[in-house]
Amino acid sequence: MPFFLDELYEQLIAGGLTVGLLGGGTWAWLRAKAGGATQAPPEQEPRTTTRPPIEHTPAKRSTYGERAKGAVIDTNRRTDPVTTAGPGTDAPAAGEGATHLRERSTIPPERMGGTDAEVLEPEVDGTTGTPADYAREPGVEVPDEAQGRLHRLRSRLSRSNNAVGQALLKLLSSGDLDEEAWEEVEDTLLAVDLGVEATTELVDNLRTRVRVENTTDPDVVRGWLREELVRLVDPTMDRGIAATRQGDRPSVVLVVGVNGTGKTTTVGKLARVLVAEEKDVVLGAADTFRAAAADQLQTWGERVGVRTVRSEKEGADPASVAFDAVAQGVDSEADVVLLDTAGRLHNKAGLMDELAKVKRVVEKRSRIDEVLLVLDATTGQNGMKQAEVFAQAVDVTGIVLTKMDGTARGGIVVAVQRALGVPVKLVGLGEGPDDLAPFVAEDFVDALLD
Q1: Helical axes 179-191 vs 196-213, angle rounded to 10°
Q2: Strand order in the sheet with 307-311
Q3: What CA–CA distances, in Å, run from 104 to 87, 191, 221, 330, 366?
Q4: For the chain, which residues make up each domain, given as ranges?
Q5: pLDDT digits (tens, 9 = 90+) for 14-36
Q6: Which of 14, 148, 323, 357 has the fewest Cβ atoms within 10 Å of its own Cβ atom?
Q7: What angle do the packed helices 218-233 and 196-213 form, to 10 degrees?
Q8: What's the CATH superfamily of 64-147+238-449?
């Protein structure tokens, strides 16, 4: 397509004209005409897909962020009264100091006409608006809060990494730390993907402490090892996720990564985390190239009563879907919009260009507050190469490590943080819907050494 049409397309999206006037088929015809084709534009009808209005009643304040030590979800909330009535209802405003889900409106038909994107409201027939109340209706679940997630973090990491921690402690407290023993310590740390630089730094510091203190007492050595590992993981990094409404707009979170890392699943699980925080969430299915990606994300949303903006057309323009999702978040006064994106590595240049376009188009309507990169922890150093490629295309602000329960390579946390200069914010611990937990440095290290 000629370059001027690319520019025109982005301007039309930003001005809302493509949403109202140019559908996917019409735009395809225009592109063909610019290239010399003569086919006529297909007929299209504006359509908006919504569900019946959902009424809301006052919610019980969540304690997710208050109970979790070092919880990474941004728990700053609006405490001014918010009207929680659904469209067309007369439900009263929230009580003073309470935090409730906001009105779940939909994009007006005149804004949706001609686009491939649809706003799919969750199929809920009840009259309540909080996660706890939704559970009274079939098919809508109550996500776990932080306490259960953090407990699973420690227990599952302990199972997968316990052998490594015990091996290190055995070597360091053996009483005979010669050069061969220190080399074994280095090999063990390198085997868990800690990285050469971090491994050298840790071993040098431990050797100095053992020499100065002249002791190999197991309890003392364990304390030193814990201190050094916590320092490397760096508990001072800001692991908060931008999930708080920003003035007159929602927070926008872009989730990127290659296929196979659990990216779409992570978006769905993150929605559950935010719903447990009583956040009003909109999902944007901007992975329009992978078959069934939109269906998968919509299913995750319906399980916790969250709306999904998607296109029924495979291969639709991801930037347009992402823009529509953000527009829906603005119009419905949502707290946060989560955008899933395509993850095709077989065409790196095309993928990175597409991501850059999505970011550019979305920012014509709202700034992007968070870019989360999803990495498969079992890939070890291969994941580092993926991280570097994505970091060149978008400004990554945080890492999500999936499949942490299935690997003994916990050192990837340190390696990826050092390589990108951004923190690990969430970790995936298994296949369960609530197996996504905030990353807490001290708990992570304790799990390695337990």
Answers
A1: 140
A2: 117-120, 307-311, 281-286, 336-341, 251-256, 370-376, 398-402, 424-428, 436-438
A3: 7, 49, 56, 11, 19
A4: 3-34, 64-147+238-449
A5: 555 544 345 445 545 455 555 54
A6: 148
A7: 150
A8: P-loop containing nucleotide triphosphate hydrolases (3.40.50.300)
